[in-house]
Amino acid sequence: MTRRGFLIASGLFCALAACSGLSGITQKPEISLAGIELVDFGLFEQRFKLGLRIQNPNDVALPIQGLSFDVELNGQHFAKGVSDQAVTVPRFGEAVLTVTATSNLGNVLRQLNELQKSGRQRADYRISGRLELAGVGNIPFERKGDVAMPVFDPPR
User: Fold this and answer.
1) What is the mean pLDDT of residues 110-131?
2) Rg (CA), the chain
3) Fold of 25-148
4) Largest Cα–Cα distance of the chain, in whole Å?
5) Euclidean distance between CA atoms 52 and 128, whole angstroms
């Protein structure tokens, strides 16, 4: 086999191996916001615990190695975060992953003002980002919904 033939065969083998890692993943996992909890309220930034519900509609387990995400509330950027937590979501199953998100004072005050004006206890959200799957690569996600807002009781 010539060197060129070897390189072509190697490339085809790698492509087939990559596709076999994707076999069984026919649908994107669904990630939704299960809850928000204020953890730290500082002058420059605020930290929240977010519960992310990950649902796997596939016939194979999803070995998640990490994720990155952005959260919008009521159509405005609110917080973002990353996590290197590993979790395996079983086939046709779900898992709730608790992650930390960071926001700034301007985003929080804007949301408080919006909630006060509307009198609502829930906020519309949009979460988007990427899941990193072991042996597969990353899968983008996006979901819209609504969520109960945490109680903000800043220090006086």
Assistant:
1) 83
2) 20
3) Immunoglobulin-like (2.60.40)
4) 77
5) 11
